[in-house]
Amino acid sequence: MAQLWDGASGLAWIVLRALLRFVFMFFNNCVAIPSYCLYLLALQPLRVWDSATFWYLEGVMFKWMLAMVSSWGWIAGYTVTEWGDDVRPFSEEEAMVIVNHQSTGDVCTLMMCLQDKGTVVRKMMWLMDHVFKYTNFGLVSLIHGDFFIRQGKAHRDKQLIYLKEHLDRYYYSRDRKWIVLFPEGGFLRKRRETSQLFAKKNSLPHLSHVTLPRMGATHVILKTLGGRQENGSVVGDTGNNNQTGIITSKSLQWVIDVTIAYPKARPMDIQTWIFGYRPPTVTHVHYRMYPIKEVPVDTTALTDWLYQRFVEKEHLLEQFYNTGTFPPTPGQTEAVSRQMTLDPVWLCAVQSMAFASGYMWFSALQYLYCCVF
User: Fold this and answer.
1) What does the pLDDT read at residue 2?
2) Which phi and psi angles does 100 have, rounded to 5°?
3) Residue 365: which pLDDT band, with cuts at 50, 70 and 90?
């Protein structure tokens, strides 16, 4: 009887905690997202007068928004351990970031682990599935200038044209540095069987922990942002002149290959981040950097190069799931991990700012309503 009571008490606490977290996050969204929009609406004259300062301020607020999402996982004990190359010294250099995609929690994980990477979060552009446009965070991403891409053969060609136009119009004009995409084009559980059938049909490697990547978006990004091309490869340079006539200071300098691994191959999803019903969990993130000059831009060569990256991801994940560690990077004798940390004082300050802003805007709009009506 005592054991049954303990089990019921434990379940009741999990449900109560999940309910409290949901209520907090509901109000967190209700104050933060409208405040973000209203601040930017109030700053529209600055956008006309000094566009660079406007997008700087927007980037700061965007980073705060992502910090709030990070705090939801942080307070539940969901943390990140990093492996491989240290990308922090390169946070001010232009880079394309390719990531394996297992679940909706991948985006939350990246939001957390990039928080301590200098100005990356406020200067990054995301490529994500169009369904994210209709989530609570979709409006923020839309204003920030992220690109929502439709999957499927029926939309593919048009979407790549739209992507190039989007990059030409927004990437350099808003001083973006990193662009993040998931080349697999969908979640692992949804694409694995199709990918394996395609691999078997075309004598390609059989993959279980990742799927074969799709080329379209990667190729467009390299062609649009990669600068000069020599001998079939991209060569980073200075003084690019894109189709909008804006002179850019630099083109892409790096491709950063990010591999996300979850303990026991159990991905975190957005529901876990919201309700916090899973015990404290450490997600492992591995980085591998490639100079842009090593990346081919020819379609066939780029396909082979990107396939090889995902074969490497397969080996990385297989070793991690078997041993709990990633293999050492080239030049290392043993793998070294780094615990990613967030400052709880800073997270509290960001949350306090969100609720204070929400109260301020509510009071201001209430006063305006009373004055008008």
Assistant:
1) 55
2) -75, 155
3) very high
Q: What does the alpha-carbon distance between residue 355 and residue 35 come to, in Å, rounded to a whole number?
A: 9
Using CA atoms, how far apart are residues 8 and 253, in angstroms rounded to an integer?
A: 55
Look at residue 239 and tell me whether its pLDDT is greater than 90: no
User: What are residue 237's phi and psi, to 5 degrees?
Assistant: -150, -175
Instruction: Please count the other Cβ atoms lying within 10 Å of the Cβ belonging to residue 48.
Output: 8
The whole model's pTM is what? 0.89
Asked if the model's pLDDT at residue 360 lies above 80, the reply is yes
Q: How far is CA 148 from CA 14, 203, 261, 369, in A?
A: 35, 32, 25, 35
Q: 337 forms bridges with which residues in the sheet?
A: 83
Q: Which residue has the tokens 């109560």?
A: 16
Look up residue 215 and give its DSSP letter.
-
CB 126 within 8 A of CB 177: no
- The confidence score (pLDDT) of residue 138 equals 87
Tokens (6 digits) for 178: 């990193």
Give the ranges where 175-284 is alpha helix by DSSP (H): 188-201, 216-225, 270-275
- Could you give the CA distance from residue 144 to residue 139 in angstroms, rounded to a whole number? 9
Cα-Cα end-to-end distance for the chain:
63
Separation between Cα atoms, residue 77 and residue 347, nearest integer Å = 14
Comparing C-alpha atoms, which of 225, 71, 54 is closest to residue 147?
225
Q: What one-character DSSP code corresponds to residue 262?
A: -
**Per-residue confidence (pLDDT) for residue 254, from 0 to 100:** 95
User: What number of helices (H) and strands (E) belong to the chain?
Assistant: 11, 12
**pLDDT for 246-262, tens place per residue?**
434 478 999 999 999 99
Query: Residue 257: beta bridge partners?
Result: 98, 288
- Of 119, 176, 110, nearest to 144 by C-alpha is 176
C-alpha span between 13 and 45 (Å, rounded): 50
Q: Could you say which DSSP state residue 323 is in?
A: H
Strand bridging mode 254-261 / 281-291: antiparallel
